[in-house]
Amino acid sequence: MVKIFIDPGHGGSDSGAVGNGLVEKNITWNIAQQISNILQNEYEDIAILMSRTGDSTVSLSERTDAANKWNADFYLSIHINAGGGTGFESYIYPGVGTPTLTYQQAIHRQIIEETGFNDRGMKSANFHVLRETDMPALLTENGFVDTMLDANQLKDSNFIAKIARGHVNGLEKAFSLTKKQSQTTIYRVQIGAFKEKENADNLALQASGKGFNTAVLFRDSFYIVQIGAFSSRNNAEQLAAKAKDAGFNTFVSN
Ligand SMILES: [Zn+2]
C-alpha cells in the first residue's frame, strides 16, 4: 500500500495567485481531484488523503501535521506560479538525496512529457511543506497565471487533464504502482446524476464538506457525482452505506 498525501495549494480565504481571470486555489483543487480520481480508478493498493476538502482554509502547519500523522509515504503539493515566466518547475527540500531526488526526477519528467510545458528545471527551496514533512515531499508549479501563454492553457480542461495525468504517470514510475487489470470490474459509488454540471458540482461540494472524496464524471450525457471506485463490491457497499447514513442517495454501479 502506497499512501499519497495530495495537497492542493491554498484554498478558502487564501486564493493564491490570481491573473487573467484565473485563481490558483481553484486550479490546484481541480488538478488534485483529477489525480486522486485517476489513482483510485486505475491503480491497485493506493491510499489517498487530501489536505483540504473543497474550498476550505487550511494552514500550512495543519497540512503537514495531517500528512505526518497519517504517516504518508509521499507528500505532493500542487501549485500554480506567478511573477512572470512560463512553464513548469518542481521543488524538493535543499540537500535531500534519494529517494526524494529520484521521485522528483520521475514526476518532473513525466509532467514535461505529458504537457509539453517549457522546462524551468528541477529546483530546491526551503518551503514549509518541504521542510516540515517527515516523508519525501515534492512541490510542483504548473504554469503561470500572469503569463498569457500559460493562462490560456490553464483555462483548457484538456490541458488540466494532461497536468493531472503527468503527475500520475510520474507517481506510477516513482513508486512502481500496479495498474488494475482492465478486466477487473470497478464498482463505482455514486450519489447523483445530473443534466446540469452546476447541480453535480453543488452536490460534490456538499459531499466533500462531509468528508467524502468526490469526483464529477461526464458519462452518457450525465454529470455523475462519484465518491469512490473499488474493485471489491464489498468495499463499495460499505462506502455507500456510510454515504447513506450521511443523508445521500447512493447507488453502486459497475
Ligand atoms: Zn501557490
Would you kindly provide a written description of the structure presented here, covering whatever features stand out?
This protein has helices at about 25-40, 60-70, 100-115, 130, 150-155, 155-175, 195-210, 235-245, and strands at about 1-10, 20, 20-25, 45-50, 75-80, 90, 120-125, 135-145, 185-195, 215-220, 220-230, 250-254. The two termini are about 25 Å apart. By secondary structure, the chain is of the alpha/beta class. It folds into two domains: about 1-175, Aminopeptidase; about 185-254, 2-Layer Sandwich (Alpha-Beta Plaits). Strands 4-1-5-8-6-7 form a six-stranded mixed beta sheet, sandwiched between helices. A four-stranded antiparallel beta sheet has the order 10-11-9-12. It is globular. The protein contains eight helices and twelve strands. The site of zinc ion has 5 residues, from loops. Zinc ion binds near residues 10 and 16.
Please write out the topology:
Elements: E1 2-8, E2 18-19, E3 22-23, H1 24-42, E4 46-50, H2 60-70, E5 74-81, E6 88-92, H3 100-115, E7 119-124, H4 128-131, E8 137-144, H5 148-154, H6 157-175, E9 187-194, H7 197-209, E10 215-219, E11 222-230, H8 233-245, E12 251-253
Parallel strand pairs: 1-4, 1-5, 5-8, 6-7
Antiparallel strand pairs: 2-3, 6-8, 9-11, 9-12, 10-11
The protein binds zinc ion (ZN).
Name the CATH class of the largest domain.
Alpha Beta
Task: Write down the Rg.
Answer: 18 Å
Strand order of the largest sheet: 4-1-5-8-6-7
According to DSSP, the number of beta strands is 12
Strand content: 25-35%
Mean pLDDT: 95
- Architecture per CATH nomenclature, i.e. the level-2 architecture of the largest domain: 3-Layer(aba) Sandwich
Shape: globular
